[in-house]
Amino acid sequence: MSLSLPIEEVLEEVKSKLASHNTVILQAPPGAGKSTWLPVQLLNEPWLNGKKIVMLEPRRLAARTVAARLAFQVEEETGETVGYRIRFEKKVSARTRVEILTEGILTRMLHEDGALEEAGLVIFDEFHERSLHADLALAFCLEVQKILRPDLRILIMSATLDGEKLSRLLGDAPVITSAGRQHPVSFHYTGYDDSLPLPLEISKIIRRALQEEEGDILAFLPGTGEIMRCAEILGNENVPAKVVPLYGDLSMQKQQEAIQPDPYGARKVVLATSLAETSLTIEGIRVVVDSGFSRVPRFDPSSGLTKLTTVRVTRDSAEQRAGRAGRLGPGVCYRMWTEGFHHHLVPHRSPEILEADLAPLTLDLAGWGTKDIASLTWLSPPPAGAIAQAKELLEELGATAAGKITERGKEMLRLPAHPRIAHMLLEGKKENLAALATDLAALLEERDPFTRESSADIVLRIEALRKFRSGAPVPADKKRIERIERSAAVWRNYFRIGPENNFPAATDAGKLIALAYPERIAKKEHELRYRLSGGRMLRLKEHDPLASEEYIAVASLDAGTKGEGKIFLAAALDPDDLLHLAYEKKTIAWDAQKGELIARTEKRIGGLILETKPLKDISAEEKTGVLIAAIREGGTGMLNFNEEFLSLQARTLSLRKWREEETWPDLSTEHLFATLEEWLAPYLENVKKKDDLFRLNLHDILLASVSYDQQQRMEKLLPQKIGVPSGSLIKIEYHADGSPPVLAVRLQELFGMSETPKINEGRTKLMIHLLSPAYRPVQVTQDLASFWKNTYAEVRKELRMRYPKHSWPEDPLTAEAVRGAKRKNRS
Predict the structure, then answer these.
(1) Are strands 758-759 and 23-27 parallel, antiparallel or unpaired?
(2) Cα-Cα end-to-end distance for the chain
(3) Helices 434-445 and 478-495 sit at what angle, rounded to 10 degrees?
(4) What distance separates the 2 farthest-apart alpha carbons in the chain?
(5) Is the dihedral of CA 616, 618, 624, 626 positive or negative?
(6) Is the distance from CB of 127 to CB of 161 less than 8 angstroms?
(7) How many whole angstroms separate alpha carbon 514 and alpha carbon 674?
(8) Beta strand ranges found along 166-314 (DSSP E)
(9) Which listed site, 15, 45, 721, 810, has its alpha carbon 20 to 30 Å from 793?
């Protein structure tokens, strides 16, 4: 007798290993029966001791479907021996012994019963998907197993996971492998013309598959938008098949229509997202068309935003998609990439914990009492940066204090919602705005029912929702508004309140959004542009009426480009509603644009200033600290580095280089900026503006750091001016790097000087820049005697015609030095 399911071949081994080990890993390909048959075969095992089996599924549709298949195995209705719990929905009874759970249900069960006393076995199905909830629940279950319940069994099931690696991480847990009964799948690599829209390109491949192959077709697309567009294209072309969508937001009836065979035997084309990769068994599929893309959430810690991103499928996902074609018999897979490109696909999908918003996980950890995250067993430890950001948010929402969960945090943990939404709902109840909060929660958790061209004002959506409840027509997507109302009804039931259909105050909605997203309070800066309390700039669409509001609370936005994001959903804010969120801050700062010191008391929320008052009484220490910081930030442009100061600086630095055996002060720019507190602080008492800084005489201030004896010695060693034969006193130009000082002088003023002048007690020759009568450079030399002997004659020949009124003697050493032109003889 042939076995009906491949998993039956390893059933006894699974039972045996679970009897002798509390953690077991099972590898089995899709369709082996590990999800839809195995759990009920373990119900009577002695080690289970009559307790429940709970199985975690990563998706709601899979949870419902798997529960139905398992119930069918025991010839019962769902909710009897086999039941399920998903968000806002459950089918269980007192008789239920196998519970299929999804999302955060298992972690909430663990919070309620830390020892998980009713469960004897926890199964993690499709673990290769590495969902955030699965990783967290496994970490909790392993700790329960280690400390409280060594009898608790854990079975990890996967189709593509590296079982040996996982085994090592879990203390060499035994690995059982079911070969399965996968039929061969042949491949067509079609390539992808990225100049065409994806729905148009994949519809071409689907039409080709309908012509070339028999059987139903399962096509994988990134998301709902592409699915609906592709369905429209195929419908307009009247393809010879029934086209049905399959994605998470569909009603149960529509999902079953996609999963079950057509009752009239019509050929089907199922257009699905990645949820069809694993647990779901879609009857009749023989052909798979894979677009090669999926849409995944990505959290950006720098912006605090999670956005859906279209990415290339990983190799393990591609293999699972293709496997769908080989469950019933030999199948065919059309891949919209080249065979060469296939080998360059990323081997495995990234664990969600590495890329997700970790605020829910961090609240779970706080509720679990985890002090050291590293003390838990993580297959992929959560990133420290994302955890730090999540902790900051939870503190701001009042969910934690000093790292420990608060009573408010415990209330939030009991709600099946993101901590932001949970906080908004609880505060809404407290502020007598519970009905509005439930409507907002539903709107924020579901897709926008308005078109992208609509105003961003979320109050318009609330009004549409309330009109819809009253039976009036609304300018919104009907399916989406129905889903929003179903979600709002569940929240109303949770809080035991009735609906409200009157139009809400716009600022009440803004107040609630600000409670959920305190860092997204925005103040208008110019026309359509708003600045968030965190500093980021946002923009409303052109002609959006919401732009008339000075303050708004932003519920939905994107990270944007060039530092400016787009606002998708927001509501007006009353500044008075913000005062309880604001804090008072004393601001003493330097305004670099205005070039002045500002001192004021501000009421602010993050970077937004609600009101200001001048601050008159500030200490000298506070003022000096701000000014010195501003000078360091602004650099040399903040102070008057005039010629007199630069000369003093160059002379002292030259002495430090030329006379290292002596002690001369360090007046280098680097040292001066490093020691501003020591030499400049006493002179900043009356400084308020940049002009005041420029009036400070740096030469006189710093000369005070040179003793009187050193000043006298400096003048002797490095005089500021030197006499020349003409009787003039010529300024010497010194350099901070210690290069030879320059004496720039007209040639005629040096007649009679045979040797190059020296300074520094004769140790340092001057570099002479000989100038023409028009003060233009003629020659540079440190050997004046050589110039007179070898070069002067040529210079004389060239310049005497140009400057005939000036003295050009044949013998410069015996001629009289003069300052200007030749004197006329007077008779």
Answers:
(1) unpaired
(2) 146
(3) 140
(4) 146
(5) negative
(6) yes
(7) 44
(8) 175-177, 185-189, 216-220, 242-246, 268-272, 285-290, 293-300, 305-312
(9) 721
Neighbours of 358 (CB within 10 A): 26
Quote the percentage of the chain above a pLDDT of 70. Answer: 96
Distance CA 11, CA 24 (A): 13
Q: What pLDDT was estimated at residue 195?
A: 84
DSSP state of 790: I
Instruction: Supply 789's token pair.
Output: 């002997």
C-alpha–C-alpha distance, residues 467 and 500, integer Å: 10
5, 9, 14, 17: CA torsion to nearest 10: -170
Question: Is 288 strand, coil or helix?
Answer: strand
Q: If you ran DSSP here, which 8-state letter would residue 449 be given?
A: S
DSSP class per residue in 41-68: HTTT-GGGTT-EEEEEESSHHHHHHHHH
Contact 758, 765 (CB under 8 A): yes
Query: Angle between the 407-414 and 359-368 helix axes, to the nearest 10 degrees?
Result: 120
* Residue 607 DSSP SS3: coil
Beta bridge partners, 285, equal: 216
Q: What is the chain's percent helix, strand, coil content, to nearest 5?
A: 40, 20, 40
> What is the per-residue burial (b if ≥16 Cβ within 10 Å, else e) of 21-50?
ebbbbbbbbbbbbbbbbbbbebbebeebee
Residue carrying structure tokens 């590296």 = 162
What stretch of H or E contains 111? helix 105-112
* Per-residue pLDDT, 301: 63
Separation between Cα atoms, residue 787 and residue 801, nearest integer Å: 20
453: its two tokens: 């061209």
Q: How far is CA 408 from CA 65, 395, 415, 539, in A?
A: 36, 11, 11, 34
**Whole-number Cα distances in Å, 736 to 114, 651, 655, 702, 707:** 73, 7, 9, 15, 20
Render 120-181 in DSSP notation, one character per residue: EEEEETTGGG--HHHHHHHHHHHHHHHHT-TT-EEEEEESSS-HHHHHHHTTS--EEE----
Instruction: State residue 562's pLDDT score.
Output: 67
Any idea of the CA torsion for 132, 137, 139, 141, to the nearest 10 degrees? -170
Do 778 and 749 contact (CB within 8 A), yes or no? no
Q: Give residue-wise pLDDT tens across range 234-290.
A: 999 999 999 999 987 777 788 788 888 888 889 999 999 887 666 667 888 999 999
Q: Are 558 and 615 in contact (CB under 8 A)?
A: no
Contact predicate 412/423, CB 8 Å: yes
Contact indicator for 757, 722 with CB cutoff of 8 Å:
yes
Three-state DSSP class for 517?
A: coil
Which position has the token pair 């949770």?
A: 494
Beta strands in 351-435 (DSSP E): 400-401, 404-405
How confident is the model over 318-353, as pLDDT tens digits? 998 998 898 878 999 999 999 999 999 998 888 989
pLDDT at 619: 85
H-helix segments, 415-499: 419-430, 434-445, 458-469, 478-495
**3-class DSSP state of 827:** coil
Cα separations (Å) of 170 from 24, 104, 204? 9, 22, 47
Q: Using CA atoms, how far apart are residues 18 and 32, in angstroms rounded to an integer? A: 19
3-state DSSP call for residue 744?
strand
pLDDT of residue 823: 63
Residue 737 in tokens: 């790097």
Distance between CA 777 and CA 799 in Å, rounded? 12
Q: Can you give the pTM of this predicted structure? A: 0.71
Residue 136 and residue 163 in contact, taking contact as beta carbons nearer than 8 Å: no
Displacement of CA 349 from its chain's centroid (Å): 20
C-alpha closest to that of 525 among 589, 613, 608: 608
Instruction: Report yes or no: 458 and 441 within 8 Å, Cβ to Cβ.
Output: no
795 in Cβ contact with 747 (< 8 Å): yes
